[in-house]
Amino acid sequence: MNRTYKNGLLFTGLLIVATIVFACDIVFGNVRLPLSALWSDDVLYREIIYNFRLPKALTAVVTGAAISVAGLIMQTLFRNPLAGPYVLGVSSGASLGVAVYLLAGSLLPIAFVQSGWGLVISAVIGAVLVLLMVLGISFRVRQAVSLLIVGIMFGQIAGSLVTILQNNSNPDSLKLFVVWTFGSLSAVSWTYMQVLVPLVVLGLFLTFFIQKSLNGLLLGENYARGLGINIGRTRLLIIISVALLAGTTTAFTGPIAFIGMAVPHLVRGLFRTSDHRITIPGSILCGATLLLLCDLATQLPADGYTLPINAISALVGAPIIIWIILKNK
After folding, report:
1. Of the ranges 11-20, 166-175, 235-244, the best mean pLDDT one
2. Which of 74, 234, 288, 297 could crosslink 213 through cysteines, CB 3.0-4.6 Å?
3. Which residue range forms the structural domain that includes residue 303?
């Protein structure tokens, strides 16, 4: 069978599965809705779907796609199958920003603390500060592995500062911070969506723009230079893309574990190629579908109780990573 035709069938199948799972994520929840509710004129159904279920499902699609693509390009940059979207310290920086906001709120202006955007802005500031430092060092470091180590070290520093804040905070603030680290798709309203979606779309656009350079990096930086690829420029655009994709989604939903690390491997195995012209759109579809499935799984408990999204994503993603390690020996 022609490879192009086979890829077309796979993309069509993934799109159909994603559509079905998206509809299921809207129908199932604390209040079970009939399938007919999707096109019903009932006021109660419309309120539940439009103001609660639909924003949550769209957030799962956007977040799953964003962190999966971010994980893919991180694995390409570092040529490391276990690299993820947070290896440059994005998650740790966002956690530090949120920790300062929740655990040291008395140090911040009252208007900022009372703002509904306070949590998001704090996470964005924390993630951006860490990425700016990594970005500055990227101009002085030639090897991608060194940049990886720098990102991990910044993450450790941010984690240490978070621990200090936790040690000196009151129990109520500490509980709020711990709940944020669980991750949540239901906190993104239509107002937040107007900021989240354009930034993620911009990050995806940048990734598609550099897909030829990413394919060159698969062969190693020296070979890529021989092909005329500007390594410094490509690395800069990758870091900016990750800042937009992983940094923005982390700010709005909290850190989502393992999806960004596992999905690129699923896509490569499914399409049997590392060509970014295939793996980028494949990661978008697979990442969105997998996070929608994880969100569905959080609704399994009865009586209005839901599981943290991070607990489910780790249960799904961690076995995939273990399988990859065992397969590659």
Report:
1. 11-20
2. 234
3. 3-328
